Write a sequence for this structure.
């Protein structure tokens, strides 16, 4: 290779070539991402729906089946399509003999890292939270993820009164039924759960009461047919 | 001809082996500290992170090596990042679709593979200068070394911090787990001691050879 050729080769490539390289790289990358996204989207959605279904049974003890209910702005109506996971939804649970077991209410709240989404089991008659299942969280492993793993923290949600409102207190400072005992070292995540529950309750307490008042039959399943 | 082939094979083997021990990305090069400290609280998480990184490193290396003459050097880092980010997003979606539990456990750290210096480092210092065959060997070796290192840390932390290994309880119900080990400080302690141990091994070997 002669010196002249070397000099030519080391010349700066044109801006056009640089832009083209990045443009093509970006385009191909976009193509791969879109196809992966489209391919995995239904599977991910199915996983989420399955996880949600399992969670409903978990937060409402004794539930054998549930009806998905949608808030249409005025009232709660049953959703026919079981696959629906969009919209303002809650899940009315019933045991095997058709007895009403409670309402599972999904909620979201900003945690320490990212949005925490959880499902709360609510008994509108006793006005207590009877279960909580965190569906998605990116809280710190070993600290914030105790909102999922810590048995003591989970035991907060066996019979948590929703009146007058749900508050979070330090561990060992619980004085009344409406207080959640925070996890030591994970106050932000614990508070997020408290806010999440309180938000769900402000949003749904009245709506559910209203529905149960106007549809007393909802407490006994009308699924006889 | 035969000799060159033999040389080739021995060089390829060298590229493979160096990543596991002599140039181990974690214990020697001290790269990729973020996942090494953050997701090694259990052996399973460590293994999953190792495998996810392996996938990204292997395919990025192949592609970068194939395109090493096409990509102008002025935009190489940007191009590498685009390539790496693409594979990371693909593995992110794939894990979410087929291994939702692992995806949940690793959380944000899958997306953070993009900024793992180990991967960009191998593209810049190896794949962009060598042929595909050697680049694959290098990527596999480095990935094995990385996974091995993460597993070492993960196993120690899980055994001490949770009293279990791969989720199986080891010491029965009366074991009081050493919680600090699964917390961030535990990651630093274990990594520090392992670095000390590996440096000591290397020093000792130097002395006797």
């Amino acid at each position: 290779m002669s010196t002249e050729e070397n000099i030519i080769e080391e010349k700066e490539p044109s801006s056009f070539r640089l832009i083209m390289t990045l443009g093509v790289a970006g385009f191909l990358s976009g193509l791969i991402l879109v196809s992966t996204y489209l391919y995995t989207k239904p599977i991910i959605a199915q996983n989420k729906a399955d996880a949600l279904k399992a969670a409903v049974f978990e937060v409402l003890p004794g539930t054998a089946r549930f009806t998905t209910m949608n808030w249409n702005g005025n009232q709660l109506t049953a959703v026919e399509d079981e696959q629906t996971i969009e919209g303002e939804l809650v899940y009315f649970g019933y045991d095997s003999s058709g007895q009403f077991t409670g309402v599972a209410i999904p909620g979201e709240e900003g945690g320490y890292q990212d949005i925490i989404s959880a499902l709360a089991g609510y008994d509108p008659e006793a006005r207590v939270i009877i279960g909580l299942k965190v569906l998605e969280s990116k809280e710190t492993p070993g600290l914030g993820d105790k909102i999922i793993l810590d048995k003591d923290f989970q035991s907060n949600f066996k019979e948590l009164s929703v009146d007058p409102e749900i508050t979070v207190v330090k561990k060992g400072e619980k004085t009344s039924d409406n207080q959640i005992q925070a996890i030591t070292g994970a106050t932000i995540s614990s508070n997020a759960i408290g806010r999440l529950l309180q938000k769900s309750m402000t949003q749904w307490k009245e709506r559910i009461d209203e529905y149960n008042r106007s549809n007393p039959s909802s407490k006994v399943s009308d699924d006889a047919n | 001809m035969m000799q060159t082939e033999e040389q080739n094979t021995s060089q390829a083997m060298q590229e493979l082996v160096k990543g596991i021990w002599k140039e181990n990305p974690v214990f020697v090069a001290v790269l990729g500290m973020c996942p090494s400290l953050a997701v090694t609280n259990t052996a399973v998480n460590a293994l999953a992170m190792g495998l996810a990184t392996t996938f990204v490193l292997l395919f990025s290396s192949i592609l970068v090596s194939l395109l090493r003459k096409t990509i102008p050097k002025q935009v190489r880092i940007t191009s590498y990042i685009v390539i790496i980010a693409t594979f990371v997003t693909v593995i992110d979606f794939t894990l979410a679709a087929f291994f939702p539990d692992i995806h949940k456990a690793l959380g944000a750290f899958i997306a953070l593979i993009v900024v793992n210096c180990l991967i960009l480092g191998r593209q810049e210092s190896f794949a962009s200068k060598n042929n595909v065959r050697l680049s694959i060997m290098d990527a596999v070796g480095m990935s094995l070394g990385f996974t091995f290192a993460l597993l070492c840390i993960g196993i120690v932390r899980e055994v001490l911090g949770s009293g279990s290994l791969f989720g199986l309880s080891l010491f029965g119900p009366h074991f009081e787990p050493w919680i600090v080990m699964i917390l961030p400080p535990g990651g630093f302690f274990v990594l520090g001691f392992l670095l000390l141990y590996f440096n000591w091994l290397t020093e000792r070997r130097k002395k006797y050879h």
Q: What stands out?
A: Chain A has one domain: 40-224. The CA atoms of residues 56 and 104 of chain A lie 6 Å apart. The helical segments of chain A are 3-10, 15-59, 146-149, 151-154, 187-214.
